[in-house]
Amino acid sequence: MVNNSATQPVIHPMVKFQRQVRSRVEANLLKPTDKLWKIALLYGEAWPHWKQELQDFGFTMQDSVADLLAVEAWDEN
Question: Any idea of the CA torsion for 24, 26, 27, 28, to the nearest 10 degrees?
Fold first, then answer.
């Protein structure tokens, strides 16, 4: 069995989420000025998980999508 983890960095789940949100902004499904709670309309049953993740990082649902997209690193320390 080969361990590929040394060659491929692990991507933080919030990086993946951020990329998905950016994609939805580029597709005009969200605007950068929209509040984070609007993401719930696109994520359905998965929203409670992502809402909690965002809150754990200090976001409120009144913050803008642009605030989420501006994060450069998702450090949990």
Answer: 90
